[in-house]
Amino acid sequence: MALLRSYVSGGWHTAENGDSAGVPLHDASTGEEVARVSSEGIDFAAALEYGRRTGGPALRELTFHQRAALLKALASHLREHRDELYALSARTGATKGDSMVDIDGGIGVLFAYSSKGKRELPNDTVYVDGNVEPLSKGGTFVAQHIAVPLRGVAVQINAFNFPVWGPLEKFAPAFLAGVPSLIKPASQTSYLTARLVEIIIESGILPEGTLQFVAGSVGDLLDHVTAQDLVSFTGSASTARKLRTHPAIVRNSVRFNAEADSLNCSILGPDAEPGTTEFDLFVKQLTTEMTVKAGQKCTAIRRAFVPAGLLDAVAEAASARLAKVAVGNPTAEGVRMGALASLEQREEVRRSLKALLDAGTLVFGDPEQVEVVGADAERGAFISPVLLKADPERSEPHEVEAFGPVSTLLPYTSTEQVIELAARGGGSLVGSIVTADAEFAREVVLGVAPYHGRLLVLDADDAKESTGHGSPMPQLVHGGPGRAGGGEEMGGIRGVLHHMQRTAVQGSPKVLSTVTGRWVAGAPRTEGDVHPFRKSLAELKIGDSVVAGPRTVLQSDVDHFAEFTGDTFYAHTDPEAAAANPLFGGIVAHGYLVVSFAAGLFVSPEPGPVLANYGLENLRFLTPVKVDDALTVTLTAKQITPRIDQEYGEVRWDADVTNSDGDSVAKYDVLTLVAKEQS
């Protein structure tokens, strides 16, 4: 059987005579050998250096939007190879539904980060974090936080349960940040990850050096990480602790993110009695989380907290659903739960079950035997779904995880008790509360949030569109405190920023404008003979400005605006009441009248490069505008963002409206779409 190839230092590497031609990997359902794996002969130091010197510079030359476009192209390419990946995924014991979660879920992460990169990041190579911080009275000394990509490699060490989603959910934010990745999957299912990487490399979509892959053991890889590298790990809490204390990681303060196993919980509300929608949702979610991926999910429900009076009803309903689950070869018709990843994994689950059974009793299933469809029950890594019930005061349910189709029912008698019991898990990736009682949900959420990375509140209102307890979403953080590893992955742009260095830059407005590519108040403005609205993106520069006005606000203007719009708030229409207002002291102009007059002052009305005004942001009314006040507006090009897939881009303008005394009465950003070239 062929050895899996690694892809390092710009080429494919196959170990020669590694561990007697490598470690055999087996089909989870049939026991047949699928491939062999060995990393013998890989120069890990050279691989990391190749990523730093080749992949890093290639990525940093691209803007966030260009990287986002490559992620989208890659996602589209992988979608064309879904059938091939699905077929190989079945050999890991995954059903078609399991494979969809892994394969389509991973591709979906690429699409999600492509979209977020385009919408939430600038078409630039530097990320501006937060607002400008004034550091002096005169405004000549200011500061700005920026984020730039680290100059190392994002090393990812993944678990066996998600051989496609696992690598892609780590790769997407790293790539978007501008940091190359090195993927090291768990050996059991690494043949699927290997084929994924082959498809990616063969596509030629990614710049060289931005993705490397190691099949086999990690070797001395971590000995060579530097302060500019990152290590992300998914797996057991014990392995996470070992890696976190690796001398090179400690010595160099390497960014280390761990997503470890956890004793996730689901809590049924006291209101959710049999016959309610929420009761049915709880039972369905519990059994689904037990059987999807044969329970081999770091987000699966391990502890199911149920009001003591409902324990028997839940046990009966869950058992009835589990009895309908056919276990067997994922390719066999009717099978709803496949095998565990390996025979070794099955033995590990059985060992953990023995500890749990010391503290509880079986409700459903038999750890030692199961009826199997389309396969040999002993050659394949099959196990029955196992539901237990236990005394919630025993320590075992809160400390022992059987990483398979196993969950334990635990009764509770009060809100305070269930919050305390949930916390005994020592930190979890996710918890869910199934209830129609919003006040109960609030109390539990606030009580258990310190111990969880994500919480789902499930009820009849959101059930139809809910993505479920066990589904990490790229928009949301995936991770948790304590036993869950103390890390965070994804979380939208948060995951991108994890791969970047936040730096505070102090200087003059002129310097900060140059560094960030955004005009900063106090930086030079350029007022020329050509109105900025007459310039295309190719001609427009940061700091291009127009000053327009003054225009006097008349009483008749205020009266007309009130009548025309229907905004007859007393401050604009009742002199006596307006005079009594301590903020105004008399009739004032509508804030939106001020904004409308400002637009009339700065606009250049003839057709030209400006295609549309599509929004205002950060609008603040600072000083009341009285009748007979004269308004002047200064409009300055603040940020220019070409759209790489359109013939236009976005221009953000700084608008500052002042009164006769030169005081700012309104400040805001104007957003326009501007053609890249003159028509």
Description:
- The chain has 679 residues and is of the alpha/beta class.
- It contains 19 helices and 28 strands.
- The strands form 8 sheets. It has a 7-stranded mixed beta sheet, sandwiched between helices. A 5-stranded parallel beta sheet has the order 9-8-7-10-11, sandwiched between helices.
- β26 and β27 (648-658) form a beta hairpin.
- α2 (64-79) runs antiparallel to α4 (96-120).
- It is globular, with a radius of gyration of 30 Å.
- The model has no long low-confidence stretch (mean pLDDT 93).
Distance between the termini: 62 Å
Q: Name the shape in a single word.
A: globular
> How is the largest sheet built, in terms of strand order?
15-17-18-13-12-19-20
Major β-sheet annotation: 7 strands, mixed
Strand content: 15-25%
Radius of gyration: 30 Å
Compute the average pLDDT: 93
Low-confidence stretches: none
Query: How much helicity do the residues have?
Result: 25-40%
Q: How many individual β-strands?
A: 28
By DSSP (H or I, 4+ residues per run), the number of helices equals: 19
Global structural class: alpha/beta
Task: Name its key features.
679 residues, 7-stranded mixed beta sheet, 24% strand
Could you give a quick summary of the protein structure above?
This protein is α/β, with parallel strands linked by helices and 679 residues long. The chain has 19 helices and 28 strands.
Task: Produce the secondary structure layout.
Blueprint: E1 6-8, E2 11-13, E3 23-26, E4 33-37, H1 44-60, H2 64-79, H3 82-89, H4 96-120, E5 127-134, E6 142-149, E7 154-157, H5 165-177, E8 181-184, H6 190-203, E9 211-213, E10 230-235, H7 237-244, H8 247-251, E11 255-260, E12 265-268, H9 277-291, E13 303-307, H10 311-322, E14 327-328, H11 343-357, E15 360-364, E16 372-373, E17 386-390, E18 406-412, H12 415-423, E19 428-434, H13 438-448, E20 452-458, E21 477-478, E22 489-490, H14 493-497, E23 500-507, H15 509-516, E24 545-552, H16 555-565, H17 570-573, H18 575-580, H19 591-602, E25 610-621, E26 630-642, E27 648-658, E28 664-675
Parallel strand pairs: 7-8, 7-10, 8-9, 10-11, 12-13, 12-19, 13-18, 14-16, 17-18, 19-20
Antiparallel strand pairs: 1-2, 3-4, 5-6, 6-23, 15-17, 21-22, 24-26, 25-28, 26-27, 27-28
